[in-house]
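User: What would this chain look like folded?
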Amino acid sequence: MDTKAWTVWGISELQCWLGHRNPTSNSPSGHDAEDCLDGHLACGIRHVAWDLGRSVLAYHSDLPAATCYGLRPMPSEFKAAARATEAIYRERCQLRAALRHARANGMTLYGRLCMNRHYNPGSSYRSQFAQNHPEWCEVGKDGWLDVSRLCYGIPEHRRERIAILTEAVNIGVDGLHLDFCRQPPMVRYHSAFVNGYQERFGHDPRTLTLAQKDDFLKWCAYRAGSVTDLLRELKAELQPFRDRWQRPVPVQVRVPNDGFEANLIAGLDVVTWCREGLIDELALSELRWLDEYQQWDDAPYIALGREHKIPVYASSNCVPKQGGEWSGEVNPRGVNPLVLARRALRSHEGGAQGIALYQSDTGVQWPGVRDAIVSMGNPQVLRSYVNDPEVARRYPITKENAEYGMDNHSAEFAKIHAGPGAPHNGA
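Assistant: Here's the prediction, encoded as structure tokens.
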């Protein structure tokens, strides 16, 4: 691993390119994938994790069970803007269009899949696969049905995710980006986990909290094994592609940088993934989701990456933290380009191989933020930008914008508890 390498990764969703656009942008142009990638190129970003979808897919899939934007009955409640967005997905495959444009312009394009984000029944963002299998929905600690996640202890769910990823590879993406930041925890208290744990260890894991830390983390490691199994199965499925093409098909994962214990509680056994060679790259996000773990630090991940020769891309985010429940609207008062640039410079000085710039689709459009992003491509230019007194004068740091760059899903309502307390949000 080249410790001096520095790469700015854009993490882009075409829907957000349109939905978070600034007033000078137009509505769908007919070449929106190309416009979005050109926006990245104009900011010096040549590596992009391109959206494959969450529950519903954002490309034209041949998988028989897939639900795809634009290729499904349009819900009657869709507003005009949403109908226009659906139309751009119906008229052509935006993934294939993005790949053609990326190749023509020397860009690297990974396919990004949100790994366990299925929304509520009746939502236009929920796939038919999730809708048809309520028995596979995850279960909360107190027995309530967590319909937004499916259980990774169910082999059919793992196969559904892997089929999407391998189809994207077959279509031609350069690598894969598995996003485990949407939405932790990946695993909870489905009977597929609880029953097996009780049989093996003789007690009910639903009685455990951080007050019994060793036993609780043993339980977390047990259920996290299902996500590790997914990565093992994915590696086996990717091997024929690697053998046929005689080239790597890198697997990049994105996880919160709140520490390996918190990751394990989320179902993410990052240390085992690295030790077994199941991942090739690691991207981070400062996501505030677990109440008892409120420290974020790239350093342990960078050290782990060095040990296993895995590049680590530090946390960054172009969309500010949302206030209250998600509205789909950006709060511009929480934006400060200087804060974002300082984050990137700290990451470089801390030994990261680059940054993972989530919602880059939005950042490359915003005046001011664009200038900060342009500076990030060259650490020397970035340092000059950060130390420029004119930039400091233009972008005063306030309480409201001082944390710009943290994960925008870090809203208070999203927090989950691992310790004693109300079991409804128990991790």
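The beta strands are 7-12, 47-53, 108-114, 137-139, 145-150, 175-179, 251-256, 281-285, 312-317, 354-358. If you want, I can go into more detail on any region.
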